[in-house]
Each structure stands twice: as structure tokens, then as C-alpha cells.
Amino acid sequence: MKAIASNLTANAIVPISGTNMGAVALPDGNTRVYYQDSNNGSIIQLVISNALTEGGYRSSNVWVPPSEVRYNTPVAASLVQSTNDDSDQIHVFFFSPDNILSEYYWKGDGHQGGPDCSDCVTGSGYVGVEGSQMLYALASSATSPPTLRVGFISAGSPNTITEAVKTTGGWSLASLTSI
Questions:
Q1: What total of structural domains would you count in the chain?
Q2: pLDDT tens per residue, range 7-43
Q3: Name one Pfam family in it (predicted).
Q4: Reported pTM
Q5: Is residue 85 part of a domain?
Q6: Position 2 in a domain
Q7: From its phi and psi, is residue 156 left (phi > 0), alpha (psi between -120 and 50) or beta?
Q8: Residue 98: which CATH number?
Q9: What is the Cα–Cα distance from 91 to 9, expressed in whole angstroms?
Q10: Which of 2, 33, 38, 46 is nearest to 18 (CA)?
Q11: Engineered SS bond to 18: which of 22, 29, 35, 176, CB 3.0-4.6 Å?
């Protein structure tokens, strides 16, 4: 495969200084990329208009302040698509400095998150293994309301995957077992 870097100018490149990242593709083709800024530790949201071959950078902003983010945290993102007239939701997961599984999300009425977010997994106090890089997020709109699943390595069950699952009843926790 031939490199195409010769077609780019220095002004066309958007500099990114980050560590771990996650992303979601929206139904209209727009993309959101979330990464931990390696300079200050915050989680940054990049707004991208489409695949990089067809779109490009539109804007960026601090999604999570550095005081709420563990250094070198994994970042996972998931899109919960609307099943009715509600707007789609973007959920971003990471670990706090105290290794608490944490969340910020976006829905039609704005950006939510932080230690005081009553709707977020953060308030459940689920603790991940210190330094673990294992984290994933999945959403299923097959149920109503949609189910949100977040997998990580829990301090309570450090030898397997644990999932925090959000359903109508709120957040619950379960470890991987055989059936």
C-alpha cells in the first residue's frame, strides 16, 4: 500500500497528543472520538464529519475534566440508538483516579456525568483493578429501554470479566461464569 502522506500539508494535519481512545459512529455518518489527552489527562471529544477519507475534523472539547480521570485510563464509548422520539445517547466510560468505573454521556438535553450524576455508573462505586487496560462498552436497542453493558476487570473478581449492566432497574453487576 502506497503512503499518501505526500499529499498532505502541515496545515491540514490536526495534532493529537493522546493515549487510549474509543469512538462511535452516528447514524448520519458523523463520528465522535474520545481520547485521554497525554498533556493534562482530560478526556477530549473530537467531532469528525465522516470517515477521514471523506470528512474531517470539525471541533474538539474537553469531555471529562482531568481531576476525574485516572492516568492512562482505557476509554470505551457506546451509542444507544433511540427506539422512539428520544435522541440518541453517547456514553463514554473510563476509570477515575480511585479506579471507580466512571461515565459521562450525551443525550438531547445535554452533557451529563461526574461523581454526582445519579444516572451514571459512577455512583454505583464499581472498582476496577488498578492499572487494568481492559474495558468495553456495548449497547443493544433490542430491548426497551435499551440495555447498556460495560465490561471491565473488577477488583472483586480480578481473574475474569465483570459487566456492569444498565436496564430499567438501574445498574447491576455480574461476573463471567459458565452456563
A1: 1
A2: 555 447 888 888 899 999 998 889 999 999 999 999 9
A3: Fungal_lectin
A4: 0.89
A5: yes
A6: no
A7: alpha
A8: 2.120.10.70
A9: 34
A10: 38
A11: 35
